[in-house]
């Protein structure tokens, strides 16, 4: 999201906490949630850059509440702002920026959560406002939230927009840009389903490894530890966590599990790997694509490259925890990192992340046509550079967590226009029926966000 006019730089987390009366732990959780929301919207950093540090300061029982408040507020931000403008009879730009984070988190609580009484939500928000603004600001917060608390349901605050696209975008808390893009491409029914999916909380998915006993053995250990687990409907080695956290369980600590979205797991298996296949994973960190391939076929020979040392350090740490070893290279995908040729070169193209908005809702408020164009241009460079590492008869696999054609089909089309030795590979004959149904064209596989999973696009080219 671009900075609003008059947006005040958020205070450091420690300063925010010092300004607040320490009456209860939950009071602090709500104050920290407002700070994380403010900081995320005022920066270009992912929400986890602020949320992870804030979570480390909290007791275990409060971490779930903080995540719910932050991610829920960011998912429903535009609809919350509409309710705020209606209840306050002010445009958002006329509201003190110091109060916006407090108000947004409180409105989310009033409209979506029921565990805390409305009067407590209002009272705590007013206390926070006293620490962030003048007395009139606290009175304003009190009046607006009391008005909303009298009608704590979205239906009580209808969106009166004459433009149907804008109305749908506000109602579902999405930018106009995405609704205008998706309606003509997917149709109204599929677009509404996509918008609804983006606003649902995302379950945790785990990847098990065939050479460590597979998902059945891991699931038994997790159930014994008190977690509620079910097998993934999509990924052959995936598990969905319905209740509980796996981080302190024996299989996770032993390196037998990796946290990864089930759609990401299966996207890496398009097409399925074979024993002895030599794979170069460029832009590899934090390692999900490589781990998915190894989980399915332990005899795959992986080399992973990334240009950022910090990201490579994360990949190296994941390798240590999983008790895996394969070569790591610090290299830019635009230039082949070594003289070897590979049977499969996997390129994680830069993208807008429109398939992962339920997990990273802040991305919705940063999208622009210019940014999509910039990322597509960079993707063309990466694809052209990585192609040099593909052996004759080998595959060039381009992946994104985007569903936008500029970042996917158009990137590959531009590449193929100047590289006649590459051609799209028919995918349906290579995939099991559960995955073949997502083939969208010659060499093109796409899964839209839905159910409990993200959205991904995979394109496979064969070097003749």
Structure overview:
The protein is globular and about 70 Å long. The strands form two sheets. Strands 5, 6, 7, 8, 9, 10, 11, 12 and 13 form a nine-stranded mixed sheet that branches. A four-stranded antiparallel sheet has the order 2-3-1-4. The model is unreliable at 1-26 (pLDDT under 50). The chain has helices spanning 13-19, 25-41, 48-55, 60-75, 77-88, 97-112, 118-132, 135-149, 164-171, 176-186, 188-198, 214-224, 250-253, 262-267, 288-296, 309-322, 369-387, 409-417, 433-436; strands at residues 204-208, 228-231, 238-243, 257-259, 278-282, 301-306, 328-330, 342-348, 390-400, 422-424, 439-441, 444-447, 456-463. By secondary structure, the chain is of the alpha/beta class. It folds into four domains: 13-156, NusB-like (N-utilizing Substance Protein B Homolog, Chain A), CATH 1.10.940.10; 164-198, no CATH class; 204-259, Sun protein, domain 3 (Alpha-Beta Plaits, 2-Layer Sandwich), CATH 3.30.70.1170; 262-463, Vaccinia Virus protein VP39 (Rossmann fold, 3-Layer(aba) Sandwich), CATH 3.40.50.150. The protein starts with 12 loop residues before the first helix and ends with a strand.
């Amino acid at each position: 999201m671009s900075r609003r006019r008059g947006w005040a730089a958020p205070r450091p987390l420690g300063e925010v906490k010092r300004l607040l009366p320490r009456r209860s732990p939950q009071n602090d959780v709500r104050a920290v949630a407002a700070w994380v929301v403010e900081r995320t919207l005022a920066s270009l950093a992912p929400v986890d850059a602020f949320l992870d540090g804030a979570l480390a300061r909290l007791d275990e029982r409060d971490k779930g509440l903080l995540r719910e408040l932050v991610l829920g507020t960011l998912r429903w931000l535009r609809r919350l702002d509409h309710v705020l403008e209606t209840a306050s009879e002010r445009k958002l730009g006329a509201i003190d920026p110091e109060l916006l984070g407090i108000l947004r988190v409180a409105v989310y609580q009033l409209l979506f959560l029921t565990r805390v009484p409305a009067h407590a939500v209002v009272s705590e928000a007013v206390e926070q406002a006293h620490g962030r603004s003048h007395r009139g600001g606290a009175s304003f917060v009190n009046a607006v939230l009391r008005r909303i608390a009298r009608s704590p349901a979205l239906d009580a605050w209808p969106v009166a927009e004459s433009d149907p696209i804008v109305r749908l975008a506000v109602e579902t808390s999405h930018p106009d840009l995405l609704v205008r893009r998706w309606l003509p491409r997917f149709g109204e029914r599929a677009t509404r389903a996509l918008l609804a999916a983006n606003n649902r909380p995302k379950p945790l998915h785990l990847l098990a490894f065939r050479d460590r006993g597979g998902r059945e053995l891991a699931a038994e250990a997790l159930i014994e530890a008190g977690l509620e687990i079910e097998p993934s409907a999509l990924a052959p080695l995936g598990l969905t966590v319905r209740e509980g956290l796996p981080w302190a369980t024996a299989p996770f600590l032993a390196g037998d599990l990796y946290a990864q979205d089930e759609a990401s797991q299966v996207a890496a298996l398009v097409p399925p790997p074979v024993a002895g296949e030599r794979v170069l994973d460029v832009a590899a960190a934090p390692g999900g694509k490589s781990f998915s391939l190894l989980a399915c076929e332990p005899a795959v020979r992986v080399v992973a490259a990334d240009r950022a040392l910090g990201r490579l350090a994360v990949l190296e740490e994941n390798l240590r925890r999983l008790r895996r070893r394969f070569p790591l290279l610090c290299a830019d995908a635009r230039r082949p990192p070594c003289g070897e040729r590979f049977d499969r070169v996997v390129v994680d193209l830069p993208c807008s992340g429109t398939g992962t908005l339920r997990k990273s809702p802040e991305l919705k408020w940063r999208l622009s046509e210019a940014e999509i164009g910039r990322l597509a241009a960079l993707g063309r460079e990466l694809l052209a550079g990585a192609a040099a590492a593909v052996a004759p008869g080998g595959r060039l696999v381009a992946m994104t967590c985007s569903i936008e054609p500029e970042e996917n089909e158009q990137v590959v089309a531009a590449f193929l226009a100047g590289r006649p030795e590459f051609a799209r590979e028919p995918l349906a004959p290579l995939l099991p029926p559960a995955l073949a149904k997502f083939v969208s064209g010659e060499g093109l596989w796409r899964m839209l966000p839905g159910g409990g999973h993200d959205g991904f696009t995979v394109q496979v080219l064969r070097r003749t």
